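User: Could you check the structure of this?
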Amino acid sequence: MRTATTILLALTAAACSAATAAPPKPAAGEPTLAEVRKATERFQDVNVALAEGYIRDPFDLCDTAEMMGKPAHLGAMGVHYFRPDLIGVSAPPNPRVDGEGLHTDFRKPSILIYEPQADGSMELVAVENLVFIKAWEAAGHKTPPSFHGVTWDRMADDPKTAIDEAHMFQPHYDRHVWIYRDNPNGVFTPFNPNVSCKHHKGAKSHPGHTTQADH
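Assistant: Sure, the predicted structure tokens are below.
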């Protein structure tokens, strides 16, 4: 009985600790999530994004976890709109998108992510930044970029798989920030189960690649 009581107390203490644990905080010079939202609210109108130089993913994909060979329950990302100048794209995909940009300021994100709606409109769900690993390291950085103390995700295609893990981009670091759609997976995770691609009318996979649904 004493052992069971000890275990119960330990579990209770752990649960309380997890519930009260402080979320990641911005480092010096980094904006809070509230500041990022305030700086990007105008992009809830996709036409404003287009007018400011964002372009819709030329492959016209609505990315999902299943498309990337991951469990479908993780959810989706959505449709990406990006600023070529902020990413530093210098030429069309050949065969992959490459660039030299080092932009990391989330107050002016290089990528906006939208969820297609039933009426054909687009709803802003997240913002994102991306830097190419080759350019990042050439600039003298010894470690990946981070935001609020969380290291950005590393994305690189595995040629041994039929899935394009890097979304037709050269190896890069990226970070999603879910400030317009609650994400039970976490505010900095790639996929969101509260986002759906069911109303997307465009492509279902990257050129030359297959999805789990294709098999």
